[in-house]
Amino acid sequence: MLKIEARGYESKFWRYASPILALLLTGATSGLIFVAMGRPAGLTVYTFLIAPLLQQDGFQALVVKAAPLIMMGVGLSLAYRANVWNIGTDGQFTLGAICGGGVALAFPDAPAWALFPTMLVVGTLGGMASGGLVAWLRIRFNANEILTSLMFAYITQYLLVYLVTGPWRDPEGFGFPQTALFSDNALAPRLIEDSNVHIGVVLAPLIAIGLWFMLEKTLLGYQFRVLGQATRAARFAGFSENRLVWIAMLISGGLAGMAGLLEATGTLGQLTTTLSPGYGFTAIIVAFLGRLNPLGVIPAGLLLALTYLGGDAAQINLGLPNAVTGIFQGILLFYLLGCDILLLNRFRWVSTQAKAVR
Amino acid sequence: MNDAVNDAVKAGPLLTMTGMTKQYPGCLANDRVSLTVERNQIHALLGENGAGKSTLVKTIYGVVKPDAGEIIWEGQKVSIQNPGHAQRLGIGMVFQHFSLFEALTVTENIALGLGSAEERVGLRDRIIRISNEYGLPLDPDRVVHDLSVGERQRIEIVRCLLQNPKLLIMDEPTSVLTPSEVQKLFVTLRRLAAEGCSILYISHKLEEVRALCSAATIMRLGKNVGQCVPAEKTVKELAEIMINMTLHAPTPRPLTASVKPPRLVLDRLTIRSPHHFGTDLKDISLSLAGGEILGVAGIAGNGQSELMDALSGEVAAGKPESILIDGVAAGHMGPHERRRIHGCFVPEERNGHGAVTTMTLAENAFLSGFVRQALVRFGVINTRKTSAFAENIIKRFDVRTTGPKAEARSLSGGNLQKFLVGREVLQDPAVLVINQPTWGVDAGAALAIHEAIMALAEAGAAVMIISQDLDEIFVLADRIAVIAGGRISAPVLKRDATVESIGRLMGGTTATAAAPGEMALA
Amino acid sequence: MTGLLVAFLVSTIAAATPLLLAAIGELVVERVGVLNLGVEGMMLAGAIAAFATANETGITSLGVVAALVAGIALALLFAVVSLTLQANQTATGLALTIFGRGFSALVGAGYVGIPAPTLPKIHIPLLSDIPVLGPVLFGHDILVYLSFVILAVVAWAIRSTHLGLILRAVGDSHDAAHALGYAVVPIRYAAVAFGGALAGLAGAYMSLAYTPLWAQDMTAGRGWVAVALVTFSAWRPFWLLIGAWFFGALMYLSLYVQALGVPVPSALLSALPYIGTVVVLVLISRDARRIMLYRPAMLGRPFLARG
Predict the structure, then answer these.
(1) Where are the alpha helices (H) located in A37-111, listed in sequence order?
(2) Distance separating alpha carbons of residues A227 and B222, to the nearest angstrom
């Protein structure tokens, strides 16, 4: 019989090996699913994970896709460390895009040096407002932030649909549910000419490094870490739980809003009803894959971005439905959570014949 | 209990254990222990924390499977599989920490502890009958969270009695009782023993053991180190066998001759408890001078945690002037502000409150020390200074550990407590408040902590000790007060206090509130 | 006007049914001390399992069975990771939601826009023909009535049976229950499986009766509303009924309002149930003391068996 036995300490080896084991198990399980769907396992995994990188501009596509995931994942890694469960980053993402996009649509001819930075700030503030509202409801009314942030995500999505099919619909858009294209001044500055590689690609890792430093080396970061591990100890030290909840929600909301704005102005160039292909939930996985460490979020974000590209490739080349990305991500999160048991425990075979008392 | 007369005629001991061994990772809890309990006997099992008493009785009760050893019950070899089996054999156990369900009624709690459906028939009436018969009255329909600790213990005992036990194991039963409740319990236990239910009585309260038990087995570090008749030995002799050290009387504290200004003043402190089942603090007034140790005695659940939270700043007081630290109105200050004006605090719970178990000792030193020890520069943590601070604590207080990088959870209870007390003492406080200084701590560490507290008072700090352990209070305190039902009695000098008078106050009988602004007496 | 009102009431009860079913399941799970946030995922899995099976076999009751199996399977997955492998229950519940969404989208890809046999509506001669009350009370399909029966049985079982007592005890203090010899983890497994079965059933109702079609993410957050409902009801079964009807009404309010000619954009009206959830959540949560009074003390806390 397999028994689980506590180690009594945290295994440093498994701290880094656990996510890798989870990835391997996910790959194996996905391979089985592909076989069950009548596709050769090896080819499918290759199409999913390797082929996108080998395509022309594959690496560019990867970092562009990863930027919002990293940005949102970093914010979540901070919030989750403090046990603030912001689940509705999709809504904060969308609201950031709406607010910044609104500025773009209102002032299309404003000079570039003024327009885009303003949009960036407004978008971030939009995300912060959404996150701040969740924080306020938790602090003032004890409302569970999981439910409120998620509800706001749904509400914001309906707001987007309303705007994009109603007052903000592109008059020359043949009735499609989308806004007018943003003017060139409103688009995110590019790092590489004529490509999609916008400044978000550099901003995201920089923010990750900054937040890592804050979390590990500063008093504020220490407060977050203590709050997440021992609420009473945090109170004993005089750390204000409310203040930390505010900061966690403002940062994670603001980063999600920023990511939304960058996505709207960097990749899409307009607002549509399908602004976020489920980035909110993917960012949760990114945060856990990165072990809730802002630096770890960077490779985690790249990996999950890869699965998005892979899903598209699998759809085109192998006729797999796009939803396969979703199931891959879900399986990955399950394995991540399950493998973590190895940090504090080990498995042991125990003979079912217990030693008799003699 | 009914066939008592017949049982007394049967020859042979009730329970014989030989060669009991149990190994846990890193700890040999029981090392070839033997124990014999006779019929109609109240048998004490003595030993320090960590001596292996709990493991041994858990083996009898079927909670723990021994690695080796033999149990003979009523003349038959048995292998006890689980508590249900033990209960069917006639063994009952009242644990130190009760297995009660707060939101459920007395009847429901007892029903859950009984093995089979037949036993639940007519339960409510049987509870009323048995509980009254044995002097432990219970109202079957009351919900547990409304009951006092003493009443909760009755539930545990009645649950055992309903199953007609022949052996009742009690693990530290009196640590949660007032002295008068203890006497009532002894009457019940003596009656049970006379009627044919032997008692195996685990305790470290040596005076009680001498009064109640006719036999004692002493354990130390997992071994059985002797048997005796407790009444034939003095308390000092029993203690010495338990810890294998000759005890010296603690150095008497010199009486201060002059009247010093108060360093901690509580003025009619009144706080409503934020917990649903907590105790409100009512009109608490106290005054401590530098160099003085005030002992606040009391049974758990009478407002100690609430008092600690109010003093440390985790809960704000109604008026800022309700709490004065060195003359500064601190009632609305948070913990780190109070530290800035030289207040230091050690809460009751080490794990998760006084320390973060998953963090290193250096990080834990930072937890309360970053204010006074200046461990932060421009918002960034000074890791070198923090580590040095932790290192200092470890050295000065003889904390057995690998160093500041060790995780707090890797330390034993005693060592962690030494670290936490040391962390506060090294911050050179004006006022130190400790809640349960040596709870769950081995004797060596307890001694070190007591010495540290006395040295701190020597140096001029005002020290308040909140403790359930009357022995500890009488050793350390200059003046003694009692907290009961959220009120504090007027402090009395130690030389004017006796265990009986303090015990009566703990039972809530003659609790007179101290007058506001009472000055410390020399 | 009466016709509109009747239609509204009938729709409300229908809309409340999946919420009620899923919420009853989650209530049992939470009473035993486990927080399973994956209700949305289990509902979706149940919905697609029911739809696909009913479509392939032509038999709706097989579809319902498939939904039960799917819900239980996913719930057990959650149980293994959170109860045995001791992962954080919140995160594991999220994993379940994400997985359930992905799984249902994958399997359902081939079933979008295809019709399937639907659950029959019950027609009781005479009773169903009473004006107004007839259709409202007696014109629903079988799962609606089943939901009431299940609610009544669960409420009675929790309050009056020994099994219900054990359930409440484990949720109140798993350490005390363990000390008394109760197998905490298997009891929790059973409760979680029960919750999964009901969530799957709720999903089956959605795809086989409510909107007899499959569309990706068709539950649209109902699983989350069900979780919120359990908190609203303060873990008391009767109040689940009130809450479910309230949210069912909100869901249909948009159509009702539009039919009355009130000029509010439809997208914003669709947001009404979610706004309503937030508002009620805020109102209920305000009184922290009252919530703590009814809340199972062990909710969401990991159980680490000692000794």
Answers:
(1) 41-45, 51-54, 58-81, 89-106
(2) 38
- The pLDDT, as a whole number, for residue C139 is 66
Q: Which residues of B touch A10 (CB under 8 A)?
A: 358, 407
Mean pLDDT of chain B: 85
Residue-wise pLDDT tens for chain A (358 aa)?
778 888 777 888 888 899 899 989 998 888 888 888 777 777 777 777 788 888 778 888 899 999 999 999 999 999 999 999 999 999 999 999 999 999 988 888 888 788 889 999 999 999 999 999 999 999 999 899 999 999 999 999 999 999 988 888 888 877 788 888 888 877 888 887 777 888 899 999 999 999 999 999 999 999 999 999 999 999 999 999 999 999 999 999 999 999 999 999 888 888 888 888 889 999 999 999 898 999 999 999 999 998 888 888 888 877 777 777 888 888 999 999 999 989 888 888 877 654 443 3
Domain extent for A84: 64-298
How high is the pLDDT of residue C76?
Answer: 97
Where do runs of H (alpha helix) occur along B223-275?
Answer: 235-243
Please report, for chain C, the start and end positions of each structural domain, with discontinuous segments joined by +. 2-294
Task: Using an 8 Å CB-CB cutoff, list chain C residues near A151.
Answer: 221, 224, 274-275, 277-278, 281
How many Cβ atoms from other residues are within 10 Å of residue A5's Cβ?
11
Q: b or e along A103-133 (b: 16 or more beta carbons within 10 Å of the residue's beta carbon)? A: bbbebeebeeeebbebbbebbbbbbbbbbbb
The ranges assigned to domains in chain B are 4-243, 262-506
Structural domain includes residue A161: yes
Tally of structural domains, chain A? 1
Q: Cβ separation of C268 and A158 shorter than 8 Å?
A: yes
Instruction: Give CATH superfamily name and number for B262-506.
Output: P-loop containing nucleotide triphosphate hydrolases (3.40.50.300)
Of C166, C176, C307, the CB nearest to B64: C307
What is the bridge-based pairing of β-strands B262-271 and B281-289? antiparallel
| Sequence letter at residue B334 | G
Task: Specify the pTM.
Answer: 0.85
CB neighbours (10 Å) of residue B209? 22
Of A324, A327, A337, nearest to C87 by CB-CB distance is A337
What is the C-alpha to C-alpha distance for residues A129 and B293, in angstroms, rounded to an integer?
52
Nearest residue in chain B measured CA to CA from C307 = B64
Q: Is C113 on the interface with A (CB under 8 A)?
A: no
Cα(A261)–Cα(A242) distance, rounded to whole angstroms? Answer: 28
CA nearest to C186, candidates C89, C83, C300, C68: C83
CA distance, residue B103 to nearest chain C CA (Å): 7
Structure tokens at B24: 């846990």
Tell me the pLDDT of chain A averaged across its residues.
88
Architecture of domain C2-294: Orthogonal Bundle (1.10)
**Over C214-260, what HEC string results?**
CCCCCCCCHHHHHHHHHHHCCCCHHHHHHHHHHHHHHHHHHHHHHHC
Cβ(C89)–Cβ(C298) under 8 Å?
no
Indicate the helix (H) or strand (E) that contains B76: strand B76-78
Rounded Cα–Cα distance for residues B289 and A183 (Å): 74
Confidence of residue B519 (pLDDT cuts 50, 70, 90): very low
Q: Tell the CATH topology of B4-243.
A: Rossmann fold (3.40.50)
